[in-house]
């Protein structure tokens, strides 16, 4: 994963991936997929669009249409990860996962400890690719949706059967657990305008 690579534009359709610290399957351990959906809700409340996603046991793939809100995409993603990390730590505490909490504490580096960070829940960086064409967006959606089938062992046989993914919408035409916006609708939209 790239380390803190800045996205220069404050808008656009991006394929985003972020990972739990040291690839721990925190979403499955805590059954906390709803934490990511809460993050999606917040993004939508700010005018952004969730185009596609797969929430895996230890990482998240999402394709998001970011509108220009005056904040950088790096800041938006970083803030989202911070809020999700807080919720995951609360769930780990409620579910008495003391060993995992201790690990997450030990993984915080000295600089972050001096800034009062207590747990390293996610890897510090995130991967991103701009979806500059319909073809590239479709390629990334295909990759995202096949992820649960490529898990070892596979989480599902057919992509549309994975509950925490947008595959059902793109393959069967039915919205799944979390409704998404079809990427084709964003092709003619101007995401550059500040929206409130």
Polypeptide structure, described:
There is one protein chain. A 4-stranded antiparallel beta sheet has the order 2-3-1-4, with helices on both faces. The protein has 196 residues and is α+β, with helices and mostly antiparallel strands. α2 (33-45) packs antiparallel against α3. The mean pLDDT is 92. It has 8 helices and 4 strands, in the order βααββαααβααα. It is globular, with a radius of gyration of 17 Å. It starts with 11 loop residues before the first strand and ends in a 10-residue tail after the last helix. The chain has a single domain (12-186), classed as 2-Layer Sandwich (Alpha-Beta Plaits). The longest helix is centred in the middle third of the chain and has 22 residues, at 73-94. It has helices at 26-30, 33-45, 73-94, 98-106, 110-114, 134-150, 167-172, 183-186; strands at residues 12-19, 49-55, 59-66, 127-130.
Short description:
The chain is built from eight helices and four strands. The chain is an alpha+beta fold and 196 residues long.
The percent range for strand residues is: 5-15%
Q: Would you tell me the structural class of the helices and strands?
A: alpha+beta
- Tally of individual helices: 8
Helix and strand succession?
EHHEEHHHEHHH
CATH homologous superfamily (4th level) name = Transposase IS200-like
* Share of residues in helices: 40-55%
Annotation, overall tally of beta strands: 4
Tell me, rounded to a whole number, the average pLDDT. Answer: 92
* Rg from alpha-carbon coordinates: 17 Å
Strand order of the largest sheet: 2-3-1-4
Task: Report the span from N to C terminus.
Answer: 32 Å
């Amino acid at each position: 994963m790239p380390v803190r690579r800045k996205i220069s534009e404050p808008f656009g359709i991006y394929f985003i991936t972020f990972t739990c610290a040291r690839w721990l399957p925190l979403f499955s351990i805590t059954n906390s997929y709803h934490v990511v959906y809460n993050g999606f809700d917040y993004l939508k409340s700010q005018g952004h669009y969730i185009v596609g996603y797969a929430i895996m046991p230890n990482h998240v793939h999402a394709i998001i249409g970011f509108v220009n809100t005056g904040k950088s995409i790096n800041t938006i993603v970083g803030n989202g990860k911070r809020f999700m990390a807080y919720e995951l730590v609360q769930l780990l505490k409620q579910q008495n996962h003391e060993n995992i909490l201790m690990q997450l504490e030990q993984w915080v580096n000295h600089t972050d400890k001096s800034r009062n960070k207590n747990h390293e829940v996610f890897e510090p960086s995130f991967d991103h690719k701009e979806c500059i064409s319909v073809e590239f967006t479709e390629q990334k959606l295909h990759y995202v949706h096949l992820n649960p089938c490529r898990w070892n062992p596979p989480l599902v046989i057919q992509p549309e059967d994975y509950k925490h993914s947008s595959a059902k919408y793109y393959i069967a035409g039915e919205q799944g657990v979390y409704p998404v916006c079809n990427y084709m609708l964003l092709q003619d939209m101007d995401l550059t305008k500040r929206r409130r």
